[in-house]
Amino acid sequence: MQSRTPPARTGRPRSAEADAAILAATRDALVELGWSGMSLGDVAQRAGVAKTTLYRRWAGKNELVVDAVAELFDELVLPDGDSLAADVVGVVLQFGELLQRPETRTSLMAVVAESTSDPALRLRIRTAIVDRQKRLVLQGRERAQRRGELPYEAEPAVAEQHADLIFDVIAGAVVHRALVSDGPVDEAWAQALAGLLIAGLPAAMT
């Protein structure tokens, strides 16, 4: 008996342009309306798509907003520095500049505030934003280890813990500086943070 090939799925393919328009519209709506005032209908109207288009891509507002924030953080790149200090300073300055944009500040603060009472949203923030941006730490650490600036960890579990710690220190410091204490994330501050971090890393990784 011959097996039958399942029929090809029909319908319009997912459009990258539509996704980009929806995520941009989400950030614009958050800036203008805030979390409670924003609706999927408003986002659809701003993006020029049907409301059903949003529901085919996202289960609800929480997922949509997290993806809108995650897209902004995907712009961060590890600079081509010649030292661990240069790499840290470069990422910190990019991060600080990103947090100065109204759409980033509003979107990030809104989704973090909402996540305090929503464990599922916290998990989505971790997988869509934190885990994705940890790539910068992994890349920077690998470079530093090749240059002999940091020791290699023998155990994968220990290496993962160190990556989490580095990410938490950098991200926590920059977010607090930019969004809580409202201080400048400038060259001098970034260099001071890099110096503090690098001085403590060898001891933490042994």
TrEMBL record:
InterPro entries: Homeodomain-like_sf, HTH-type_TetR-like_transc_reg, HTH_TetR, Tet_transcr_reg_TetR-rel_C_sf, TetR_C
UniProt keyword annotations, A-Z: DNA-binding, Transcription, Transcription regulation
Ribosomal protein is among the record's keywords: no
Keyword Transcription tagged: yes
Gene3D superfamilies: Homeodomain-like, Tetracycline Repressor, domain 2
Domain HTH tetR-type: 16-76
Listed Pfam families: TetR_C_11, TetR_N
DNA-binding positions: 39-58
Recorded superkingdom: Bacteria
PROSITE patterns named in the record: HTH_TETR_2
Stated name of the protein: TetR/AcrR family transcriptional regulator
Lineage: Bacteria, Bacillati, Actinomycetota, Actinomycetes, Kitasatosporales
